[in-house]
Amino acid sequence: MATVVIADDHQIVSEGIARLVELSHQVVGIGADATELLALVKKHQPDLIISDISMPGMQLNTTLSLLKRTSPESRVVCLSMHDEPEIVKAAYEYGADGYVLKHQAGFELAKTIEKVLAGERYIPDELKSIIEQKTDLSARQLDILKYLAQGLSAKKVALELNISSKTVEYHKYKMIEQLDLKSASELIAWAHSRKLV
To answer: Model pTM greater than 0.85?
Structure first.
């Protein structure tokens, strides 16, 4: 029986997941934001973490890498309503072992849990075609774009990501070019329209 930590900022969702998980595993903690999630993971070192990726205080890249550092043996399943290829791909690039869309049936989550606990990095069929879609932005560019879209200057983004501000500016203009946009403000609008922030 695996130990599981669940995190979602909607209590009804986390309780529903807990009921499903408790049919075959032990839920040792439920959190409602990134801070609670990290504290629970540090305390319990669970076999599995099931987490929403759009909770308060949650930055996909930072939170996933922190989870992996805090409890290296834990497997991670991301739960999300986002099916944009950029977000799905980024989750796997940052270390997710599984990714389930919230509208998918419970059996898909149950299947993903078992596959991930068996050591697989599992992608449900519905997401395979999404993951194969061409996306022009790299994980590094997505990191930069998320911070820019939050209103941070290139200098502050550079500090957050431990890179030079020149690198930030280079990627910013590269993204504008790649996405066939005209300005930095269009780039920010694009990020918000794709719910990348």
So the answer is: no
